[in-house]
Amino acid sequence: MSAPTPTTNFRDTDDGRAVHDLGGLAFGPIDKSEHDLALWEKRTDAMLALLFAQAFSVDAMRRTIETYAQQEYEATSYYEKWVKALRNLVVEQGLMTREEVDARFADVRARLRDAGQDVDDGEVSW
Amino acid sequence: MASQPAKAASTLAPGSAYPGPRFSEGARVHVDSREAIGHCRTPYYVRGKAGTVASLVGIFPNPEQLAYHRPGLPKLPLYRVRFMQAELWEDYAGAADDHLDVDIYESWLEAADA
Fold first, then answer.
1. Quick check: A16 and B69 CB within 8 A?
2. Are B38 and A63 within 8 A, CB to CB?
3. Tens digits of per-residue pLDDT, A66-100?
4. Each residue of B66-81: b (16+ CB within 10 Å) or e?
5. Hey, is the C-beta of B39 within 8 angstroms of any chain A C-beta?
6. Model ipTM?
7. I need a surface site. Which of A71, A109, B60, B101 has the fewest CB within 10 A?
8. Closest approach of chain B CAs to the CA of A23, in angstroms?
9. Rounded distance between C-alpha atoms, residue A63 and residue A39, angstroms
10. Confidence band (pLDDT; 50, 70, 90) for A28?
11. Interface contact A56-B44, CB threshold 8 A
12. Residue A121: predicted pLDDT
């Protein structure tokens, strides 16, 4: 399988085309290959299914994803987009504070590090 | 299309009863070309284009409001609108009767001149 050819089509939001609205742009062939879902992707799906019933709508999640900057939008995978939206909407809706989310990330990273696992300390912008 | 369409749902006060779908199957409609501000389900490539109502999909809370945690009322009719591919894309090389169906909320549609 070859990776899709990277192509950037600048979306000028001034004309009303949002970053996700790709219909008709020349991105080349679509890579239709499937991959097995990682555990974190399944958990993201499950958490969002629960949150949709309680805390926010799928429309709110779409709106959140549609506001990512183009560079981030094109560099992130499907579930990476979802999990960032989950984090941001949990804070937006007041279920957790940003400080609580950050503290929880620090806890999990420390636990994984103690268990001898490689930990990515990269930050995902809010 | 009838010359006196019902009042557009988007101009109704929140909570007011919606008078019913403005467009029936086969109606010629024109998609608004306004800029989308915030969340919008109408694809860029159909804005400003004309199509034909293929069916009424249903009546649903307005996603442009749901996206901001509002109740999305009044609900809006959602239509399946059929566009001819040759009218959507320059230099379309497929068959003349190739078409594309897109689900579009009534707040983005106006009656097209016949």
1. no
2. yes
3. 999 999 999 999 999 999 999 999 999 999 999 99
4. bbebeebbbbbbbbbb
5. yes
6. 0.83
7. A71
8. 6
9. 25
10. confident
11. no
12. 86
